[in-house]
Amino acid sequence: MNTLSGLIKRHKLKISLTAVLIVFLVFILAAYPIKSKTRLTVVNGNIDLSSFDFKNNVKLNGQWKLYPYKLLSYEEIINIDDYEGINIKVPSLWTGVEYGSSIMEGRAFGTYVLKVQLPEGNKDLSLEIRDICSAYKLYIDDDLMIENGKVTTSKEEFIASYKPNLINFYTNETEINIIIQVANFSQLDGGIWDSIYIGTSYNIINKALKDHILDYFIIGGLVLMGIYHLVYFIFKNQWKEYLFFSLFAITIALRNIVTRSRSIYLIFPNIKWIFVTKLEYLTIYLAFLFCNMYVYHIYKEVYNRRIYKVIKILFILAILLHLFLPTSITQKYLNVFLIMSALLCLYILNVLFKTYKNQKEGAFTFIVGMFIIFLCFINDALVTIEVLETSFLVPIGVFIFIVIQSIATGRLFTNAFKNLEIYANENRKMYVEIKNLNETLELKVKERTNELKNKNMELKELACIDSLTGILNHRNIVNYLQTSIDNIDEYKFLSVSMMDIDYFKRINDSYGHQMGDRVLEKIVELIKNTLNKKGIVGRYGGEEFLIVMPRLGIYEAFKLIEKIRVNVENLKIEGIKDKVTISAGICECTVNSNVSDIIDRCDELLYKAKDLGRNRTEF
């Protein structure tokens, strides 16, 4: 018996996580089916519900018809021969979708069309619409049912709105056309972001009501836990953990108000879209900031103070940038934030496992709570790719985590309070001494770290930069080319040019090497200004330069290099009477390209340009 007890104690964490996983899987498999092969799906802009009994709601997911850059009416739709339509998955973004020989941009407009076959007889139906970015008009055949925001073909008169809607309609037709005119000039990506549901009015309203009840339950629970911990902090303000946990819970509650069923529109019906969007992002930043501060103050003995400060500064900076910069700019750096958040989660897990090994109270429940959130993330990912037909569970997982952590925090600090009263006087003196020693040590380490950092930066700069021209040297421009080829799938296009100054030896012989160096410096300055972030130039050797141009195809690269060549030809250099010209060769990289072949090919084209009379570009 003692052996079994000891075994359970040693493997308590593994047993608990396995039990949570089993309960989660049993719940998923018992409550919801795996995606059925016969599930109703939109195919080629059509869905057949003629045999459907409408006892449940139907997701209108699948291949809708989209007519990019056209706002079509019902009359135009029925004469569809005049227009080009494409199949697009709903829900999804339309950014980057190909139509004809073009690619659709994120900020654009278009018309979604779905033909729905219905059973015979009179039908009282409803649609539930959540996220369509960023404004739309919805028609049932030629009847306008709702306009959310203002749909236009230009940014000037466009008005965004993210208000969710329930649309009720009555029909005795056996076929209807759902036509949604969508415009987006506010977000980076447009389109129908979330599933659209169709069902009887009773079922749709019942579903929406259940969603709202669940949301309000979660929001109310989070707010109550936040207020409870805030009040506790006010009476015991030396425990900052309670403050940060309170702010974390209230931030998650605010995020649910803004994002889940967008209950914020019930409180503020006329709120501007820009405030909703900023709140949506700010609540993420604030949640991670407060979580970081909360974990640090609980596990100070394990949590590295420097890492804590760096993370705090980065998130505060992200919050300030999002407050004062346009959303269109801050959205571009969302991936940077996601990487920061992932690294923070990994570091917090590392801290928790260390504290658990040290038998620190509270670490076990924290790990179990985070494991529950992880399982909910997996569920949501499977729902997104339509493997499961469950609901999105991350908000519920976060709520369960906060409840568990709230109980653990209360228990943790109840025990801590008892011990604190006993050892307060003795520990106070010891704490002052240790704090002074830590601060002294930190100052010394900081000074040494700064010295090493400065030396390393100097060495790195000397190793990477050509000393005369200030651009990348031979080794590093070749390394940059290799990196660019490795990332060619991301860039889509990659062009490379080898460039050489014509008769440079004659310049050195006629005007001296100092004047030759000056010519090199002037031409490099001109190349950098002309490239203007469209490419990177490096000194390949002597008077030869290698230019790497990610995202530029051969024709765009040719225009850019020709512009450089003409600018050099027109360049006036004090002390040089002769005209200075350049010759260049350009080639385009593919996925299978290698550095040496590309450089050799550019070199061949460069010498071809020289053989044909110099002062020209060959590709």
From TrEMBL:
Domain GGDEF: 492-619
Species: Clostridium grantii DSM 8605
Coiled coil: 420-458
GO terms under cellular component: plasma membrane
Record PANTHER family: DIGUANYLATE CYCLASE DGCM-RELATED (PTHR45138:SF9), REGULATORY COMPONENTS OF SENSORY TRANSDUCTION SYSTEM (PTHR45138)
Lyase found in the keyword field: no
Biological processes, Gene Ontology terms: cell adhesion involved in single-species biofilm formation; negative regulation of bacterial-type flagellum-dependent cell motility
Descriptive protein name: Diguanylate cyclase (GGDEF) domain-containing protein
SUPFAM superfamilies assigned to the protein according to its UniProt record, in alphabetical order: Galactose-binding domain-like, Nucleotide cyclase
Keyword terms, alphabetized: Coiled coil, Membrane, Transmembrane, Transmembrane helix
GO molecular function term, any single one: diguanylate cyclase activity
TM regions (residue ranges): 15-34, 213-235, 242-259, 279-298, 310-327, 333-352, 364-385, 391-413
SMART domains: GGDEF
Family matches, as Pfam families: 7TMR-DISM_7TM (PF07695), GGDEF (PF00990)
Domain of life: Bacteria
